[in-house]
# Entry
Amino acid sequence: MDRAFAHYLHEAGAPIATAFIAAMDHAFQHIERYPASGSPRYGEVCDAHGVRSWLLSNFPYVIMYIEHDTYLDIIRVLHQHADIPSHLLAEDQQP
# Structure
């Protein structure tokens, strides 16, 4: 998130960088309220059970998270053109 914010700030200016943060906040609030609304597709494809994804509005980023009983784990925020499966597998293989 920090790198994306810095990129938007440098390349597009403060209004776009601020809009990026607002979109992230909105997405976090949505998945907090409706955690099951995220897609399980990447979790299923990568055999990373419980991982869900949510696309950011107006920006090419995806939030990867896991729902627990009382909280959410945001495990990655990735550009949509990243090799998402390899990032999930790397996370899943860490101790």
Notes: The chain has one domain: 2-92.
